[in-house]
């Protein structure tokens, strides 16, 4: 429970400390786990929610997988914000962690992952370690994990952005190919390609992702993000606030 008063004046040291301690991203992983459990039950147990038709089950699976994708990508944003905020506080020798978090934007997260995925020193410092005091394997582990995150973000960013922050990534069922039906997210073109016969081209291959198939990958992505967040916070909080995080 917070130790500072709500809607009243508060000592800044107490406010900064309590807000930093209470800032957590783990509840989002709890939501992902719940969505994943529901996803698996609907996928594997026909007796679960028998009132749903086959088509309704497909639509629900797409919706569940889309939410898992969005929340997992969101967790990687959260990880970047926390890493950057603690680095700024340590550099500036202040305790303004939550203020820095509040002022970071999504492009800052993009820039963060590009940087730490390429540079071992910056990757290791971002999680609160001294690269000169770690083994080369340990150092490369963090850079490699950040690189994994960056690669997933780069590939899936348009669908995440369009599904979470707009309406141009929409759940659909598509036909053709093998299997004949696929369910996932489709990027609606901002400008359709038309021909003289009043036809439009659906641009399927580059605009569609089978989110149902990628669910396991995004659950793992969320777990990596939360683990790195937890390590970072436990190491960096004492440096900023002068006490162990409990």
Question: What's this model, at a glance?
Answer:
This protein is mainly alpha-helical.
List the helices and strands and how they pair.
Elements: H1 12-22, H2 26-44, H3 54-92, H4 97-103, H5 106-118, H6 120-126, H7 136-164, E1 169-175, E2 181-187, E3 193-194, E4 200-201, H8 204-207, E5 208-209, H9 215-241
Antiparallel strand pairs: 1-2, 2-5, 3-4
Helix pairs in contact: 2-3, 2-9, 3-4, 3-5, 3-7, 3-9, 5-6, 5-7, 6-7
Count the domains.
1
Main sheet characteristics: 3 strands, antiparallel
| Secondary-structure content class | mainly alpha
Number of strands: 5
The radius of gyration over CA amounts to 21 Å
The fraction of residues in strands falls at 5-15%
- Per DSSP, the total helix count is 9
| Span of the ends, CA to CA | 13 Å
Task: Give the ordered list of helices and strands.
Answer: HHHHHHHEEEEHEH
With strands numbered from the N-terminus, the spatial order across the biggest sheet is 1-2-5
Q: Give the overall shape.
A: globular
Helix content: 55-70%
Overall pLDDT confidence: 91
- Note poorly predicted spans: none
Description:
- This protein is mainly alpha-helical.
- It has one domain (12-241).
- 63% of the residues lie in helices and 8% in strands.
- It contains nine helices and five strands; from the N terminus they run αααααααββββαβα.
- It has a three-stranded antiparallel beta sheet with strand order 1-2-5. The chain has a two-stranded antiparallel ribbon with strand order 3-4.
- The mean pLDDT is 91.
């Amino acid at each position: 429970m917070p130790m500072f008063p709500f809607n009243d004046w508060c000592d800044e040291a107490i406010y900064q400390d309590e807000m930093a301690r209470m800032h957590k991203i783990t509840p989002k992983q709890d939501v992902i786990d719940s969505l994943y459990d529901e996803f698996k039950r609907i996928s594997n147990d026909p007796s679960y929610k028998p009132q749903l038709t086959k088509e309704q089950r497909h639509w629900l699976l797409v919706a569940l997988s889309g939410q898992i994708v969005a929340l997992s990508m969101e967790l990687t944003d959260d990880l970047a914000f926390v890493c950057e905020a603690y680095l700024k506080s340590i550099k500036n020798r202040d305790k303004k962690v939550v203020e820095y978090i509040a002022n970071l934007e999504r492009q800052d997260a993009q820039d963060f992952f590009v940087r730490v995925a390429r540079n071992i020193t910056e990757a290791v410092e971002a999680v609160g370690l001294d690269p000169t005091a770690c083994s080369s394997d340990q150092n490369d582990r963090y850079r490699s994990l950040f690189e994994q995150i960056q690669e997933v973000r780069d590939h899936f960013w348009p669908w995440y952005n369009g599904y979470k922050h707009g309406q141009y990534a929409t759940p659909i069922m598509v036909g053709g190919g093998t299997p004949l039906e696929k369910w996932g997210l489709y990027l609606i073109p901002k400008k359709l390609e038309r021909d003289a016969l009043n036809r439009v081209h659906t641009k399927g291959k580059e605009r569609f992702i089978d989110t149902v198939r990628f669910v396991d990958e995004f659950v793992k992505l969320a777990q990596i993000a939360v683990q790195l967040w937890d390590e970072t916070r436990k190491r960096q909080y004492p440096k900023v606030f002068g006490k162990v995080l409990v």
